[in-house]
Amino acid sequence: MHTKTLTELKAGLANGDFSSRELTEHFLARIKQFDGELNSFVTVTEQQALAQADAADQAIAAGQTGLLTGLPIAHKDIFCTEGVRTSCGSKMLDSFIAPYTATVVNKMASEGAVMLGKTNMDEFAMGSSNETSYYGPVKNPWDLERVPGGSSGGAAACLGARLAPAATGTDTGGSIRQPAALNNITGLKPTYGRVSRWGMIAFASSLDQAGPMGQSAEDCALMLQAMAGHDHRDSTSLNQKVDDYLGALKEDISGLTIGIPEEFFPDTLDGAIADNSRAAIRELEKLGAKVVSVSLPSIKLSVPAYYVIAPAEASSNLSRFDGVRFGHRCDDPKDLEDLYKRSRSEGFGDEVKRRILVGTYALSAGYYDAYYRRAQQVRRLIRDDFARAFEKVDVLMGPTAPETAFKLGAKKDDPVSMYMADVFTIGVNLAGLPALSMPTGFINGLPTGTQVIGNYFREGQILNVAHKYQQVTDWHRQLPTFGGEQ
Ligand code: GLN
């Protein structure tokens, strides 16, 4: 059952080939068998999953099904889930049982989804390798000595090894797309505001966006259909009609114009990475797409601008973890100041502390104009570059990540080289655009991904481009030896 896509599993349930209970038990057994080594889950909610599966089987028998009825899904541990630990990969929230459920999780549950558990992640979603998690690193199922990418590394790895048929992730600077590329799965970051952020623990509020991670573009379309929509509890969620994403997959792509930003193929890029993405673009040309070259001159400033804006917003968002209201509290504080200091020192890991320091500095009086305001101006230039490109083209394409999965520990002491893992993804977040990563072949047995970026609210179009590609290729069907093929 685990070699089937979510869409195929949905059909299997509808045909009565298996029950949701059988399906759920199958994935729970796989998690038990393989996750000791992979470490992709922080919490497995077995009892709850089985109860939801039984309810789904009753709903199916009664003919009352939603979009996701009976389908097991893993949620990133950044989404609050009532009654279940929500750790955000941090010691700070190790004992936090959320008193309410995030809108994304609620919406999927109301469409009948079964929650398998909560996936491991970089602490507070800060990282590109899943090594900053308090619960230890996640391993890449394609090579257990390598990282799965981050911050949604647990989601990508459990999906890559088919310990879950689908998962949710979040993407602030690349955290859905980069791990999707490194694990041979498809992941979509929607337009900023398309999916509610309510109940999703905030990292950088003007950039964070939740999205689907699946085996195919079709699976992502199915999940996005359930996730998207306005939420009156999130003032940044947009009150715009939700498109028919599955319907969009039926549209013809002949005549589609693909822009290739020259900045996504710099001379310094690994030739094999460039070749895989160029081959994917050629495949779409064969299907009738036109290809033109474009330029995004300011995109080179996206990583530096992001590493001012994201830490600035993080320093403000993370001030709530003070040892008083919720989260870790130190033992025997001498006074209030000691309580704050020690609770935060003990509760946060090094990368989170680094971001809080950088962000607090960038926002402090005297430096605000030099850093934060400047970075926001650069952000506008990047947005304008994309807007100019989209006057001429329908979508933009290039590699998702500059390299395949690297060895565990390889970049641990070099934060700047770690930050460069998102060099091709971060600009999209700064502009608020939708983008996905799809599997486009291997280098030395390790997966690579290609990014498809669309204009605002064109999720249907980019999913369709990936779907058309996946109908004529089978990269997305390849499984790792670990887990997948057994
Ligand atoms: N790797 C980037 C960072 O560390 C992006 C993370 C994310 O998208 N959550 O901030």
TrEMBL record:
Catalyses: L-glutamyl-tRNA(Gln) + L-glutamine + ATP + H2O = L-glutaminyl-tRNA(Gln) + L-glutamate + ADP + phosphate + H(+)
Q: Which Gene3D superfamilies match?
A: Amidase signature (AS) domain (3.90.1300.10)
Q: What class of enzyme is it?
A: ligase
A Gene Ontology molecular function term for this protein is:
transferase activity
* Every Amidase domain range: 22-463
In short, the EC number is 6.3.5.7
Going by the UniProt record, its keywords in alphabetical order are: ATP-binding, Ligase, Nucleotide-binding, Protein biosynthesis, Transferase
Question: What Gene Ontology terms for biological process does this UniProt record contain?
Answer: translation
- State the source organism's domain of life: Bacteria
Q: Where is the active site?
A: 76 (charge relay system), 151 (charge relay system), 175 (acyl-ester intermediate)
Where is the chain membrane-spanning? none
> Listed GO cellular component terms?
glutamyl-tRNA(Gln) amidotransferase complex
Briefly, what is this protein's role? Allows the formation of correctly charged Gln-tRNA(Gln) through the transamidation of misacylated Glu-tRNA(Gln) in organisms which lack glutaminyl-tRNA synthetase. The reaction takes place in the presence of glutamine and ATP through an activated gamma-phospho-Glu-tRNA(Gln).
Q: How does it assemble?
A: Heterotrimer of A, B and C subunits.
PANTHER family, alphabetically?
GLUTAMYL-TRNA(GLN) AMIDOTRANSFERASE SUBUNIT A (PTHR11895:SF151), TRANSAMIDASE (PTHR11895)
Family membership: Belongs to the amidase family. GatA subfamily.
Q: Which HAMAP family match?
A: GatA (MF_00120)
Listed name of the protein: Glutamyl-tRNA(Gln) amidotransferase subunit A
* Species this chain originates from: Alcanivorax nanhaiticus
**Gene from which the chain derives:** gatA
